[in-house]
TrEMBL record:
PANTHER family: SENSOR HISTIDINE KINASE, TWO-COMPONENT SENSOR PPRA. Keywords: Coiled coil. Its EC number is 2.7.13.3. It catalyses: ATP + protein L-histidine = ADP + protein N-phospho-L-histidine. It comes from Methylobacterium aquaticum. The keyword tRNA-binding does not apply. Residues 293-331 form a coiled coil. The keyword S-adenosyl-L-methionine does not apply. SUPFAM superfamilies: ATPase domain of HSP90 chaperone/DNA topoisomerase II/histidine kinase, Homodimeric domain of signal transducing histidine kinase, PYP-like sensor domain (PAS domain). The lineage of its organism: Bacteria, Pseudomonadati, Pseudomonadota, Alphaproteobacteria, Hyphomicrobiales. InterPro entries: HATPase_C_sf, HisK_dim/P_dom, HisK_dim/P_sf, PAC, PAS, PAS-assoc_C, PAS-like_dom_sf, PAS_fold_3. Residues 250-302 form the PAC domain. Gene3D superfamilies: 1.10.287.130, Histidine kinase-like ATPase, C-terminal domain, PAS domain. Pfam families: HisKA (PF00512), PAS_3 (PF08447). This is histidine kinase.
Length: 474
């Protein structure tokens, strides 16, 4: 059975889409009725290896070949035969003036034209190279357009990345040249690992007293390591072995002997590149002079150590001085107590004499009465003697409590009661020229205080007040 649509032969998936579509209500009608010009143009498009579009008729009905399919993205299922302005609605404003020029006979070609479109990769910025040319029917009228199109996004992106990479490379070269001129970079090296060929630039060679020509031809790693300080060689070799195995960035500081015979600190910075199978390929890098930086760091560390030592000594000195001041303060408080005790002694001596005289007199009277056999008065004299002894003991107890050293022992205290108990002691201490008046506040709360310390403070205040009134007062 013959094919009713032979012009679709060789069209692949695109031709299958034409056969599968229902054209009964389409403005172009069934494919069997299409004009010969359309059939011929469409056969050319379907069999082209290039990415081609045929836009037919005044409504620009959209036909495409199999090569064009990946460019349609989400439009693929419904684009065949649809109007151009619907298929590429997001690019119609940009395409419309180009199409109008083509219909007017002004065919044009565009290279790497940017276009933001929805593709099979989603909406993205894309680039295209395409040309528009008109298709004439048998009578010379413009019946449609051939559009040869190729997406060049990958090429444009690659070219852009290349330009950016070249710009970065130029900047890096300028930086290296400036660093070399300033003396920050001693030199550069390149180590071809598979061939074990170690080449250096002229600056590198001259810094180490090497022949620049030999540096270009290639040195052995042993020749380079020969200039490394003996104490740093083992560490350098271990660092090199490690980075060659693992690949990636490399940085290591060590001392080397320069052309003047002196050892200087430098830092080697480089990178080891591996092949996809893990084989080490290359090891480029630069040598940076860090001798001055190391000297500054050493001086900083020395200053930090000295400051730390000074701080620790200062803390010890402050602690010792504080302890000394506390001891002096305690001694001062005790001396103030003893001064008060000395002042009390003079005032209390007379009282003790009177109390002792009373005790002695009572005992003598008791002896006389007992000798006379008069026992009825003995009890009265005994009570008088005991009362005098108790009063003497109370004065002695207060004097000892005031003068002894003791730690703080705060406890709830009735201040009115404490002051009342101190009144007699204070009166005798300040002397008869000073009038003492005690005015205790009613309903006074108890306070948390060390009673002996409060008594000491109260007595010192009274003594200071007495000394401020040499002519007496109240």
């Amino acid at each position: 059975m013959s094919d009713p649509l032979p012009f679709l032969a060789g069209g692949g998936r695109a031709a299958a889409m034409i056969r599968a579509r229902d054209w009964s209500t389409h403005p172009l009608g069934p494919p069997e009725t299409w004009p010969e010009a359309l059939r011929t143009a469409l056969s050319l498009v379907l069999n082209s290896p290039e990415s081609l579009i045929l836009a037919w008729g005044p409504d620009l009905h959209f036909f495409f070949n199999e090569t064009y399919i990946p460019l349609l993205g989400p439009r693929l299922d419904w684009a065949m035969g649809e109007r151009f302005d619907r298929v590429w609605a997001d690019g119609w404003e940009q395409a419309k003036p180009i199409i109008e020029d083509a219909f007017a006979g002004r065919s044009r070609r565009f290279v790497d034209l940017p276009w933001t479109l929805g593709t099979d990769r989603g909406e993205a910025e894309t680039w295209w190279t395409f040309s528009y040319s008109r298709v004439l029917d048998g009578e010379g009228r413009t019946a449609g357009l051939f559009i040869l199109t190729n997406e060049t996004t990958a090429q444009v992106s690659a070219a852009r990345r290349l330009r950016e990479s070249e710009a970065i490379a130029r900047e890096n070269i300028e930086r290296v040249q400036l660093a070399l001129a300033a003396g920050a970079i001693i030199g550069t090296w390149f180590w071809d690992l598979p061939n074990d060929r170690f080449t250096v630039d002229e600056a590198f060679a001259r810094s180490f007293g090497l022949d620049p020509a030999l540096g270009r031809e290639g040195l052995s790693l042993e020749q380079v390591i020969e200039t490394v300080h003996p104490d740093d060689r083992a560490g350098l070799i271990a660092a090199i072995d490690a980075v060659v195995i693992r690949g990636g960035a490399y940085a290591h500081q060590y001392r080397t002997r320069r052309a003047d015979g002196q050892y200087y600190w430098l830092e080697a910075n480089g990178r080891v590149d591996h092949a996809p199978d893990g084989t080490p390929l290359s090891f480029p890098g630069v040598l940076i002079d860090v001798n001055e930086r190391r000297a500054v760091e050493a001086e900083r560390d020395r200053a930090t150590t000295m400051l730390r030592a000074l701080t620790e000594t200062l803390e010890q000195q402050v602690a010792a001085r504080t302890a000394e001041l506390m001891r002096a303060e305690e001694a001062l408080r005790q001396s103030q107590k003893m001064e008060a005790v000395g002042q009390l002694t003079g005032g209390l001596a007379h009282d003790f004499n009177n109390l002792l005289a009373g005790i002695s007199g009572a005992l003598e009277l008791m002896q006389t009465r007992i000798g006379q056999g008069r026992f009825e008065d003995v009890e009265r004299y005994r009570v008088a003697a005991q009362g005098a002894a108790r009063r003497a003991a109370a004065l002695t107890h207060r004097l000892l409590a005031f003068s002894r050293r003791q730690t703080l022992d705060p406890r709830p205290t009735d201040v009115n009661h404490l002051v009342a108990g101190m009144e007699e002691l204070i009166r005798r201490t300040v002397g008869p020229a000073i009038e003492i008046a005690v005015d205790g506040a009613p309903d006074l709360w108890t306070v948390l205080v060390d009673p002996p310390q409060l008594e000491n403070a109260l007595l010192n205040l009274c003594l200071n007040a007495r000394d401020a009134m040499p002519d007496g007062g109240r």
